[in-house]
Amino acid sequence: LSNQKKKKKGESDMASPSKRREMDMMKLMMSDYKVDTVNDDLHMFYVTFHGPTDSLYEGGVWKIKVELPEAYPYKSPSVGFVNKIYHPNVDESSGAVCLDVINQTWSPMFDLINVFESFLPQLLLYPNPSDPFNGEAASLLMRDRPAYELKVKGSSRSLFLPTCFSILFNLSLTHWLVSLTFQEYCKRYAKPEDIGAPEEISSDDDDDDSMSERGSDSDDNDEIAGKADP
């Protein structure tokens, strides 16, 4: 009887992908990933993804569009990059990821956390030029790897990073973006301690105050010197 109950429970779980979808979404939202849903629809949402450490994409930030099919988790999710990325297995114009990257190894045992902690990092760390979505990137990788690495790093510097751009526009330093690299600008202006920091008094104001004080002292001395002894 106990085995029959377990079997029925297992069949019930297998027949309710909606419950699994809700559970996996909850796990993803409770993790360190920023998740933006669209009208509370669990079939499509966006996740903020950072480039893997010690990779060509380190320091880059991407907005990933995730679509869950009705048969999830028995069918793999569809993922795509919203902002551009230069990679052999990602279509540069649409951001679509080669389906084989996930489909070949996907099973119901995996969840959404695995997509962002395993599948996408592995994709960026180990591109496969033999199965390209971006023919130019694949060709460049096989023909001239140093040039490929330079192009990847260059594309990663112009990525979508709301905090950095917000600070950029608030400081009216848009023209600096051309001369400063992505890492340099954020290192200068997007540190945690910079948020809400009190406005510093400029050195010009200090000089003006000092000059005013010296001028006041000088006037007082002149006034004293001008008085004759009775």
From TrEMBL:
UniProt keyword Electron transport present: no
Superkingdom in the source lineage: Eukaryota
GO molecular function: ATP binding; ubiquitin conjugating enzyme activity
Domain UBC core: 13-161
Keyword Transmembrane: no
GO BP terms, alphabetized: ubiquitin-dependent protein catabolic process
Family: Belongs to the ubiquitin-conjugating enzyme family.
Name by which UniProt lists this protein: E2 ubiquitin-conjugating enzyme
Catalytic-site annotation from UniProt: C98 (glycyl thioester intermediate)
EC identifiers of the protein: 2.3.2.23
Region (Disordered): 196-230
CDD domains named in the record: UBCc_UBE2H (cd23797)
InterPro entries, alphabetized: UBC, UBQ-conjugating_AS, UBQ-conjugating_enzyme/RWD
Function field: Accepts the ubiquitin from the E1 complex and catalyzes its covalent attachment to other proteins.
Keywords from the UniProt entry: ATP-binding, Nucleotide-binding, Transferase, Ubl conjugation pathway
Biased composition, class Acidic residues, residue ranges: 201-210
